[in-house]
Design goal:
Blueprint (H helix, E strand, L loop, with lengths): L14 H34 L3 H31 L2
């Protein structure tokens, strides 16, 4: 099993950077929750109408949007970490 590799950067994270990273986490947590709520309502509507193909499409959309937003969050956090 491969061990975690140290990139050689032992610089401690400043409080300002920690706050910025936390703000990004909160922002994207809210965006993800908002999309999940909206799309879950669409999913429930499709299921109640018996539209299984539509329901599956919404499930796929939920998954892809969550993944996309998580990737955006990590990109934003990387920008903060790399701003030196």
């Amino acid at each position: 099993m491969e061990r975690f590799k140290d990139d050689g950067d032992d610089t401690p994270i400043s409080e300002e950077t920690k706050k910025a990273l936390a703000a990004v986490d909160e922002k994207f947590k809210a965006k993800i929750a908002e999309r999940e709520i909206f799309l879950t309502q669409q999913l429930q509507s499709a299921l109640s109408k018996g539209e299984m193909h539509e329901a599956e499409a919404v499930r796929t959309q939920i998954s892809s949007e969550k993944t996309r937003l998580e990737e955006e969050r990590e990109f934003a956090k990387d920008k903060i970490r790399n701003a030196k």
